Amino acid sequence: MKTLHCLLLIMICLTLGSCVQSKQIEKLSVVTSRGTDQLENSEIETTLMIFQFTKPEGIVINPVFGKGKTIKGALANANLESRFELVAGKIQLELYGMELAKKGIFPYLDTLNRDARLPDSMYLAISVPTAKEVLTTKEQSISNNVGEHIHGLIKENAKDHFLPRVTLQTFLSKYYDIGVDPALPIIEIKDSIPKIRSIAILRDDKLVGEIESNYLLLFKILEETVRNEKFELLLPMKPFEKYLKNYTDTTKSTDKLNIALGLVKSKVDTSLIDNKNNVFQTDLWLDVNLLELSEPVDLNNDKSLKLLEKEINKKIEADAKGVLARIQKMNGDTFGYGKIYRTHQKNGKLTDELWHEIYPTIKVNFNVKTTITRHGSVD
User: Fold this and answer.
1) Per-residue pLDDT at 21
2) Are 48 and 77 in contact (CB under 8 A)?
């Protein structure tokens, strides 16, 4: 009986397989990256980076351009320029020009979300000045096409915890959730090479501002647990002067102390401590290894080690307060304080409009606790 069932299953599979439309790869143009820019006449222009498989040349990489009112319309228009059918099922990167991002990118994400062929690993980013200029940059030092280069750049920084998660599904999850807003990397061309310029702050799907890229790791440790990362801090020199080896007034050369740290593990916890006055507390624990000091501070003294931990705490707390104050002015809740606020409301109800009235006025107390686990080794 089982044998009969297996034979029937094989016959069904063969029958269904014969119904699938087959396409020769040499007659397809596979889209790997797409840029979308706003035009003056309310149309959009798409820049498609495509792989074409031709027998004489092998793989050929070319840009193709299309215009329309929608992504589908622009793709159809781009097909008029291509010798072969454009296939969008392998897109790894969606890049949006800054002017379009200011108006909102959700209308152009909806079609992506409806296409089951598109990979979940597709990354989103914003470009300066336009997606077309970034994707069509010619540079000898980039071994692959610019779209793949940017995809790899974002992938490595996301994997190494320097970027918030920036896949399509993560973006849409935050977009639909009340009390949190997405963040994306902003890509620019510098010295003819695409680089991450900053972090885009969004309210819903609209670009409302940006924060410098040197705060990337701070964004991550305020969002989730991070392990095995290196970072630098600049501390005031004055508190450490009495712990300098062979220190005299004549040997003083700087008023700043540069330190390099290896983050072993971070942990973050945020709570609403005063519901009436909208006061939150964010506790942050950091286990770090000291990798480098710019000045000869004697760390064999327990007091100097405790002082170093204290100054690290103060620096990170100050940075977190400063960054949050700037984001509040932009009214984009990147760190998701609204999600915590919502859990304390009756029946967990909160509207996006109400939260964005409250959010600019909330107060957050940052409490950082740093523990230097090792300080005798240099990486």
Assistant:
1) 45
2) no
Give me the pLDDT at residue 90, please.
73
Residue 94 lies in a domain: yes
| DSSP string for 80-117 | TT-SSEEE-TT--EEEEEHHHHHH-SHHHHHHHHH-TT
> pLDDT-derived band of residue 286, with 50, 70 and 90 as boundaries?
very high
Q: What is the residue type of 74? A: A
- The answer to whether the peptide bond before residue 107 is cis (omega within 30 degrees of 0) is no
SS3 category, 159: helix
Structure token digits, residue 312: 């690290």
**Pairing verdict, β 206-212 and 44-54:** unpaired
Q: For residue 68, what pLDDT is reported?
A: 92
Residue 163: give the domain boundaries: 25-219
pLDDT in tens, 78-112: 778 766 666 666 788 899 999 999 999 999 887 77
Question: Does any domain span residue 55?
Answer: yes
- Separation between Cα atoms, residue 201 and residue 222, nearest integer Å: 15
Query: Please, where are the H alpha helices in 207-336?
Result: 216-221, 302-330
Contacts of 177 (CB under 8 A, 6+ apart): 339
Q: How many domains does the chain have?
A: 2
**Token pair belonging to 92:** 């790894």
C-beta of residue 61 within 8 angstroms of C-beta of residue 145: yes
Residue type, 205: D
Interatomic CA distance for residues 246 and 251, integer angstroms: 8
* CA separation for the pair 183, 219 (Å, rounded): 10
DSSP 3-state of 153:
helix
Identity of residue 3? T
Are residues 277 and 370 both part of a single domain? yes
Shared domain for 51 and 173, answered yes or no, is yes
Interval 3-28 mean pLDDT: 47
Strands of 227-347, DSSP E: 227-236, 256-274, 279-293
Burial 178-191 (b: 16+ CB within 10 A, else e): bbbbbbbbbbbbee
**pLDDT tens sequence across 335-362:** 999 999 999 988 888 999 999 999 999 9
